[in-house]
Design brief:
By secondary structure, the chain is of the alpha/beta class. The chain has helices spanning 10-27, 72-83, 85-88, 102-111, 125-129, 164-177, 232-236, 238-249, 266-276, 289-294, 330-339, and strands spanning 42-45, 50-52, 61-65, 93-98, 117-120, 143-146, 152-156, 197-199, 210-212, 221-226, 253-259, 282-284, 298-299, 301-306, 311-315, 354-355. The protein is 30% helix and 19% strand.
């Protein structure tokens, strides 16, 4: 009798693998299409916080599904997004998502110094809801761009790895040039505000050369004030702004001034901050992009955020340009309430001052 070849199993095994691959393609889910309503969800992020898609209503969102953290292709993809994060975050909130545990996502983000949040879809239910869960249980490499109204704007069904950040930027730049970019909507009380990165014109005495909002850590509150160098109303508030920033610095509150006026050059902003003795970063918003994202209208105009970058108060500093006639100290009251773990007594007031001098587009 002829001896049986010990490698007889290779042929049927190979055929089985090929059949399984065909079956996976035929019977795997189909990704949701552009125009569909994006399913809401709540997942734990790499920072340990819970995130709902609906938290970002009114903002553009990049939801980037990838198969598995700490694998070569997925690492290259997330690192590419990290390297272009400042540019991408000007267009959208960026979220990665895979069928990993919260612990794995936290380690992945820390190991590669990711600037965007990666979400833990451990049971794969969100991937399934979006039609990207494969028969192997992972998510396919598919990215959804979700419009401010919660609908799916664009789908990248075969997203790149090291090239995906450039794919996204190319799409965003093209949509902006064609006038199809979603209009910025005013941030809402109780919701997270958009991220930004801006150069600091007051980079002295240990202050950073640029500020990325979401990189600010260990602060109980952040006060963003749109300011000016030539507006008489804003100028009358300079001393009050400087004093409030000093008063609350030791209480865990960071002040950020933002100058969005195109008629006020960076050198003028630097000199103004120096003359007024501002001890906080004063950022230059060239092209008023951040002012547009925040729908800021005048100088001075205040946005007070808690430690999760959630808007808690928006409006004026107080109720009178003349410091001797002030009766309602709205900004101070809001900060005192937040530091005490309470809701501000008033969450919105009408800011008054000079209109922001925007570029003509």
């Amino acid at each position: 009798m002829q001896k049986r070849n010990r490698f007889w199993w290779i042929i049927p095994f190979t055929i089985g693998i090929l059949l399984w691959g065909v079956w996976s393609v035929v019977f795997s889910s189909t990704p949701l299409k552009a125009g569909s309503k994006a399913p809401d969800f709540m997942l734990t992020g790499s920072d340990g916080n819970a995130y709902r898609l609906s938290d970002f209503q009114g903002k553009r969102v990049v939801l980037m599904f990838y198969p598995k953290s700490n694998t070569p292709g997925c690492t290259a993809q997330n690192c590419a997004v990290r390297d272009q994060y400042e540019k991408l975050s000007q267009h959208a909130v960026v979220l990665g998502i895979s069928v990993d545990t919260p612990e794995a996502q936290a380690n992945f983000a820390k190991q590669h110094n990711l600037k965007h949040i990666v979400l833990a879809d451990a049971d794969g239910k969100v991937a399934e809801a979006y039609g990207v869960r494969t028969t192997a249980g992972f998510a396919s490499r598919t990215t959804f761009v979700i419009a401010p109204d919660g609908s799916i704007e664009k789908v990248f069904e075969k997203a790149g790895t090291s090239t995906h950040a450039e794919e996204l930027l190319g799409y965003f730049n093209a949509s902006t040039q064609q006038g199809t970019a979603p209009a910025a909507e005013k941030p809402e009380i109780g919701k997270r505000v958009p991220n930004f990165t801006l150069p600091n014109m007051n980079a002295r005495e240990g202050l950073p050369k640029e500020v990325t909002l979401y990189d600010i850590k260990d602060k109980k509150a952040i006060v963003i004030i749109f300011i000016a160098t030539r507006c008489p109303v804003s100028l009358d508030y300079d001393e009050r702004m400087a004093n409030l920033a000093k008063e609350y610095a030791d209480k865990g509150v960071l002040f950020l001034g933002i100058n969005s006026n195109h008629i006020e050059p960076a050198s003028e902003v630097t000199e103004h901050a120096k003359q007024k003795g501002f001890t906080f970063p004063v950022l230059k918003d060239e092209g008023n992009k951040v002012a547009d994202m925040y729908a800021a209208r005048v100088t001075p105009e205040v946005f007070v955020l808690d430690s999760n970058f959630t808007l808690r108060y928006h409006g004026r500093i107080d109720d009178s340009q003349n410091p001797n006639r002030v009766s309602q100290r709205d900004l101070k009251n809001a900060l005192d309430a937040i530091l005490a773990g309470k809701e501000p007594p008033v969450t919105e007031t009408r800011a008054f001052g000079c209109t922001i001098k925007r570029v003509q587009r």
